[in-house]
């Protein structure tokens, strides 16, 4: 996992994550074994911004049913990244709002 793009999998675009943009917080789906230091370095390298804080959340997969068949979505790990003042990520988030 030395490549930053192996750590940051994709952005999370939800109503709650869009509201957090006002507080300069960005949400990403990350590799389950990535720690906060690895996530911070990856975001700074990919987006050329200064990260102030990283919070992580482990999300258990939900039960989903299709007819009589049931299964679980995969477990995931999310990172909520707070950027320093004056820094923004425009690639995914600014075009949506």
Automatic annotation (TrEMBL):
Keyword Ribonucleoprotein in annotation: yes
**Any GO CC annotation of this UniProt entry:** ribosome
Q: Does the keyword Cytoplasm apply?
A: no
Organism domain of life: Bacteria
Tell me the protein family, please: Belongs to the universal ribosomal protein uL23 family.
Assembly and partners are described as:
Part of the 50S ribosomal subunit. Contacts protein L29, and trigger factor when it is bound to the ribosome.
Annotated protein name in UniProt: Large ribosomal subunit protein uL23
Q: What does the function comment of this entry state?
A: One of the early assembly proteins it binds 23S rRNA. One of the proteins that surrounds the polypeptide exit tunnel on the outside of the ribosome. Forms the main docking site for trigger factor binding to the ribosome.
Q: Which SUPFAM superfamilies match?
A: Ribosomal proteins S24e, L23 and L15e
InterPro entries tied to this protein: Nucleotide-bd_a/b_plait_sf (IPR012677), Ribosomal_uL23-like (IPR013025), Ribosomal_uL23/eL15/eS24_sf (IPR012678), Ribosomal_uL23_CS (IPR001014)
Alphabetically ordered keywords of this record: Ribonucleoprotein, Ribosomal protein, RNA-binding, rRNA-binding
Q: Could you tell me the gene encoding this protein?
A: rplW
């Amino acid at each position: 996992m030395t490549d930053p793009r192996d750590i940051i999998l994709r952005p999370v675009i939800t109503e709650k994550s869009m509201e957090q943009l006002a507080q300069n917080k960005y949400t990403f789906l990350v590799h389950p074994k990535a720690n906060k230091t690895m996530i911070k370095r990856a975001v700074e390298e990919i987006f050329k911004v200064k990260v102030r804080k990283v919070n992580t959340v482990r999300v258990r997969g939900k039960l989903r049913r299709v007819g009589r068949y049931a299964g679980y979505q995969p477990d995931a790990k999310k990172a909520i990244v707070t950027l320093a003042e004056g820094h923004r990520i425009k690639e995914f988030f600014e075009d949506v709002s």
